[in-house]
Automatic annotation (TrEMBL):
InterPro entries, per the entry: HARBI1-like, HARBI1_dom
GO cellular component: nucleus
Compositional bias ranges of the Basic residues kind: 1-14
Official protein name in the record: DDE Tnp4 domain-containing protein
Limits of the DDE Tnp4 domain: 173-338
Source taxonomy: Eukaryota, Viridiplantae, Streptophyta, Embryophyta, Tracheophyta
Region span, Disordered: 1-30
Predominant cellular place of this UniProt entry's protein: nucleus
Keyword Nucleotidyltransferase assigned: no
Family membership: Belongs to the HARBI1 family.
């Protein structure tokens, strides 16, 4: 499954008076919608039309909310069925999106979210799933591998500015989505991982702006990182030479460095996947490489930590999740994560930069080494030390 590019900023065009009037009317209507919904919500004693109250409920700005609505409206409105609040009033389209986003962003139970909005918990479930299905259909362009040389050049340039790694195209990292499964569940042992938790893995390749460019999910948490990677479409494309096959970086002495991604020792050392040197007493040159490599990998740690912090439905321990639906929920949370970045939502600036996304999980070592990967890592290490032969 592959990722997305930031939305291009549209040039501002001077609007005609009637267009301005229409926009003003739409703005007034949307504020009225939020005011009315906030009055229905238990726990909001002093409803506010301001952005701070809205962000506190949905974890995104009004601009981002409106954009998400524009994405899913056609699909959600096309589905049959109508919904009502406990007071008998109909649930508007904006209400439906609001309920789904609250469920995903808060991680609260169906009952708690239902009580908050004045809805039955089964209605919350239906609305959330309608939203997930619509986002799967309409939001995938926000999660894709770069499609142009210019786009990839920008990514490589930004990675190089972090710690000097040239021609780097991404950072790969894995995290665990925790689940609560009773021992009586027939699938209990299947989902029990190495740390004795029930979990599902999410593998992500991240760009320098913490945007997900490729993800894999759905595998039990006990499956090692390198096996998840080797089962992925990304691995298959790289193996065929159809990915990470762009322009090489020319070194001063005339040799070249191909495109690659970086990861930790849980992955194999491959011609296009560079992991750190192993060992405690490393030569100064190798220790310096590891330091730069580790600092660059932080972008993926922070991306996954922010994903779980913003979309808390996948942060804690999910209560008896549907194992077929959970990967789709994880995907939609990744899409929403990218949309916040693509729309330059300032809500992300208000969040702490944590990098602890997989607390309690010890590093597992793959140990597989490809000689071409060894040569590439050594060339990178020499180049970063400034000792490349002239």
């Amino acid at each position: 499954m592959g990722p997305a590019r930031g939305l291009k900023k549209r040039r501002k065009i001077e609007k005609k008076p009637e267009e301005n009037a229409s926009a003003s009317s739409e703005k007034e209507r949307s504020f009225d919608w939020w005011d009315e919904l906030s009055r229905k919500m238990n726990g909001l004693q002093s409803p506010s039309k301001g952005p701070d109250k809205f962000k506190s409920v949905f974890r995104i700005s009004r601009k981002t909310f409106n954009y998400i609505c524009s994405l899913v409206k056609e699909d959600m409105m096309a589905k049959p069925g109508s919904f009502t609040f406990s007071n008998g009033k109909p649930v508007s389209f904006e209400d439906q999106v609001a309920v789904a986003l609250r469920r995903l962003s808060s991680g609260e139970s169906l009952v708690i979210v239902g009580d908050l909005f004045g809805l039955h918990h089964s209605t919350v479930s239906q609305l959330t799933w309608r939203f997930v299905e619509a986002m799967e259909e309409r939001g995938l362009h926000h999660l894709r591998w770069p499609s142009t040389e210019e786009e990839m050049m920008e990514i490589k340039s930004k990675f190089e500015k972090i710690q000097g790694l040239p021609n780097c195209c991404g950072v790969i990292e894995t995290t665990h989505i925790m689940m609560c499964l009773p021992s009586s569940d027939p699938a209990s042992k299947v989902w029990l991982d190495h740390e004795k938790n029930h979990s599902m893995v999410l593998q992500a390749i991240v760009d320098p702006e913490m945007r997900f460019r490729d993800i894999v999910t759905g595998w039990p948490g006990k499956i090692d990182d390198w096996l998840v990677f080797q089962s992925s479409n990304f691995y298959e494309l790289c193996d065929k030479g159809e990915r990470l096959n762009g322009k090489n970086f020319m070194l001063p002495e005339g040799s070249e460095i191909r495109e690659y991604i970086i990861g930790d020792v849980g992955y194999p050392l491959l011609p296009y996947l560079i992991i750190p040197y192993e060992g405690k007493e490393l030569h100064e040159l190798r220790a310096e490489f590891n330091k730069r490599h580790s600092a660059t990998r932080l972008v993926a740690h922070r991306a996954l930590a922010r994903l779980k912090e913003m979309w808390k439905i996948i942060q804690g321990v999910m209560w008896r999740p549907d194992k077929h639906k959970l990967p789709r929920i994880i995907l939609v949370c990744c899409l929403l994560h990218n949309i916040v970045i693509d729309l330059e939502d300032d809500v992300q600036d208000e969040m702490p930069l944590s990098h602890d996304h997989d607390s309690g999980y010890r590093q597992r070592v793959c140990g597989s080494v490809d000689i071409k990967g060894v040569h590439l890592r050594d060339k990178l290490s020499l180049y970063l030390s400034g000792k490349s032969p002239q």
